[in-house]
Amino acid sequence: MKTISTENSHGGTQGVYVNRSDVCDCDMTFAVFLPPQAKGRKLPVLWYLSGLTCTHANVMEKGEYRRLAAELGIIIVCPDTSPRGDAVPDEPDNWQFGKGAGFYVDATEPPFAQNYRMYSYIVDELPKLIEAEFPVDMTRQGIFGHSMGGHGAITIALKNPERFGSCSAFAPISHPSVSGWSKPAFQKYLGSDEKNWRAYDACSLIEDGHRFPEFLVDQGTADSFLEDGLRPEELRQACETAGISLRLRMQEGYGHSYFFISTFMEDHLRWHARRLGE
Amino acid sequence: MKTISTENSHGGTQGVYVNRSDVCDCDMTFAVFLPPQAKGRKLPVLWYLSGLTCTHANVMEKGEYRRLAAELGIIIVCPDTSPRGDAVPDEPDNWQFGKGAGFYVDATEPPFAQNYRMYSYIVDELPKLIEAEFPVDMTRQGIFGHSMGGHGAITIALKNPERFGSCSAFAPISHPSVSGWSKPAFQKYLGSDEKNWRAYDACSLIEDGHRFPEFLVDQGTADSFLEDGLRPEELRQACETAGISLRLRMQEGYGHSYFFISTFMEDHLRWHARRLGE
């Protein structure tokens, strides 16, 4: 692991790091915020998964998480959203597929299967690195994210409920198998047999018996992706049918941007802190 | 004035606007945050001047001012740092001069005098527009900024002490007539007679008798521009000699970036709110 930069912020340290990912077969960059409490002891770790077009940097710059993470003593890890580099296949004119749009799946279809293995990167490879390099208490992990990253957080929590003590999302893609911006991506990453998509779709995972105790979801009512792309009502129905506790808050007049995320970041961090133990 | 965008954030509205500036002879973009209290009454207004290379957007995205401005009921105006557009003379490879580097002076030298009139834009033209378009109480104005914008805030406060009830700065350029990155710019904007630079130099203005009751200045000790570019000790000496109250806080290990600004934003907003009346 190589350190790109570290900066004091809110009493802690915001770092950016790069490592060679065997899983994604490329260099991967990620951000880690260490609150001041990290000098003395192991702390809970919260994984933030970003949305389409983002890198590790967007939420690091615009998410406004450091003040409260420093108060609560939580380490925040912000990975990238896809493999990167000249050797990685891409559709440069398509912001909903390829670089910046890994959808947190392990692709099975050539030529994407070689690099687009974001599920294994987030669930297996990066946690090992974070555990080896930072003072994290891996018995206290939470996961959250925005849009495509909210989809990633919810699906990863549903598939790994023993690992995560908390999960929340800002405007998550709730039913990617049917949304206009995720269906073509799933087809290219996972093939045309839609049965294979169910392992990466929150609504399908719940239908298929996966469970997580509770979710917090914030969704802006002025979000232009609400109806087709995000579909929070379908997540609500799936959770209701399955008896999963979903706190879905429709936030009047809010959009899809970091102005929305940063507004409700404090509520989410407190939600996670209460469940991970402060 | 044309609205570029408005977004709900922290209970208020973050807007971006553009207007034709007669003073700068070009279109000028600026950001205004209206806290929720603005729906019912006129509120204090705080002017934030940004540093080299920035537009209105940098502090809007990374400054973390909205949460507290919404709590305190303060309107925040973030102007651009220079004239813009194809017709504006520039040195594209020089980040310390031209576009993004207006230094809040009224240039006197051709070809820059036609557009680079940021002092008059900030002090005369933009306030008239803001007063006409937003619910601001112009009897309660404060001003602050970062680096080149801290220089702008302090010099504008010193020259207009009757207008501003409060002034603070993050890592201001304190003595631009002698700093490596501002001296060449002053020469090109204001000519080679250094007497004419004194009207835009905080230390010189104080030496020449200008006064402001008190300043809050935060400065990171790990700021790579500390010694040559910023020179807070020279501001301290000038203030001491003149009997101006300067609260200069050296912040251990902090750099020059928005990670530093956002950390101490809350302290600055509370400083202004106490002086402007909450």
Automatic annotation (TrEMBL), chains A, B:
It holds the Pfam family Esterase. The keyword Phosphoprotein does not apply. Serine hydrolase involved in the detoxification of formaldehyde. The keyword rRNA-binding does not apply. Its EC number is 3.1.2.12. It is an enzyme of class 3 (hydrolase). The lineage of its organism: Bacteria, Pseudomonadati, Pseudomonadota, Alphaproteobacteria, Hyphomicrobiales. It comes from Rhizobium beringeri. The gene is fghA. It catalyses: S-formylglutathione + H2O = formate + glutathione + H(+). Gene3D superfamilies: alpha/beta hydrolase. This is S-formylglutathione hydrolase. GO terms for molecular function: S-formylglutathione hydrolase activity.
